[in-house]
Specification:
about 210 residues; alpha/beta; TIM Barrel; nine-stranded mixed β-sheet; globular; queuosine biosynthesis; magnesium
Length: about 210
C-alpha cells in the first residue's frame, strides 16, 4: 500500500494532553467528512475544519510507496537521535490510510505513535495514544482512547453521552472562527458547569507554530 501525505514537519504538539511535546506531524491527505474543497463545505458533515489536507505537498509531504519509506522520512525529520521519538498521525482522517505495516515500521523506528482521528473508523490497536475529536452528525465508532477532544460549540453534540465513553481525559477546545471570543467563553462555561472536562487551547497558533 502507498500513502498520500499532505505534509510532514517537526514541531511542538499544540493541543491536548500532549501539548508542548516535540513531535513529527504526519498529515495524511483525504477525509471522510469533507472533501477539503470550499465548494463542498456547506454540504459536509464537518464544516469548520481549518486544515488543508487536499493533495500532497512535494516540499514537506509526498506519496510514499511503502511503510518503510514513510517511517524513514519521519526518522530523518526527527533528526534528534533515538530518544523520546514521538509521531502524530493526523489529517484529514488518518485512519483512511493507517495500516499494520505503517504501525510496525514506526514502532521499529522507535516512535511512540499518537493519532488524531474523528472516530468514525476504528483506530488501529497498535497506536499508543488515541485522541478522538468527534464531529456532530457523524457516527462515532471509536468510543474509547486516551483523550476525547470536543471542539466547542458544536450544535447537536451530546456531551452527556460522551461522558459515558471510555476516555481518560475529556477536553473542550474553543472553535477558532469569527466568533472565537464567544466560543472561548462558551467553552469555559461548559468546563465550569461540568468539571470532568478540561479546557484545551491551540497553543501552536498562539506561538506561531505549524
Amino acid at each position: 500500500m502507498s500513502y498520500a501525505v499532505k505534509e510532514m514537519f517537526l514541531t511542538l504538539q499544540g493541543e491536548g494532553v500532549q501539548a508542548g511535546r516535540r513531535a513529527v506531524f504526519v498529515r495524511f491527505a483525504g477525509c471522510n467528512l469533507w472533501s477539503g474543497r470550499e465548494q463542498d463545505r456547506a454540504r459536509a458533515i464537518c464544516r469548520f475544519c481549518d486544515t488543508d489536507f487536499v493533495g500532497v505537498d512535494g516540499l514537506s509531504g509526498g506519496r510514499f510507496a511503502d511503510a518503510q519509506g514513510l517511517a524513514d522520512a519521519a526518522v530523518q525529520m526527527w533528526s534528534g537521535g533515538e530518544e523520546a521519538r514521538f509521531v502524530v498521525l493526523t489529517g484529514g482522517e488518518p485512519m483512511l490510510q493507517v495500516d499494520d505495516a505503517l504501525i510496525d515500521a514506526l514502532h521499529a523506528a522507535g516512535f511512540f505513535i499518537a493519532i488524531e482521528s474523528n472516530g468514525t473508523i476504528p483506530v488501529h490497536p497498535g497506536i499508543d495514544w488515541v485522541c478522538i475529536s468527534p464531529k456532530a452528525g457523524s457516527e462515532i465508532v471509536q468510543r474509547r482512547g486516551n483523550e476525547l477532544k470536543l471542539v466547542w460549540p458544536q450544535p447537536g453534540s451530546d456531551v452527556t453521552a460522551m461522558e459515558g465513553w471510555d476516555f481518560a481525559h475529556l477536553l473542550i477546545q474553543p472553535l477558532d472562527d469569527a466568533n472565537a471570543a464567544a466560543n472561548q467563553e462558551a467553552a469555559m462555561a461548559l468546563v465550569m458547569e461540568r468539571p470532568r472536562w478540561r479546557l484545551s487551547l491551540q497553543t501552536h497558533k498562539l506561538l506561531g507554530l505549524r
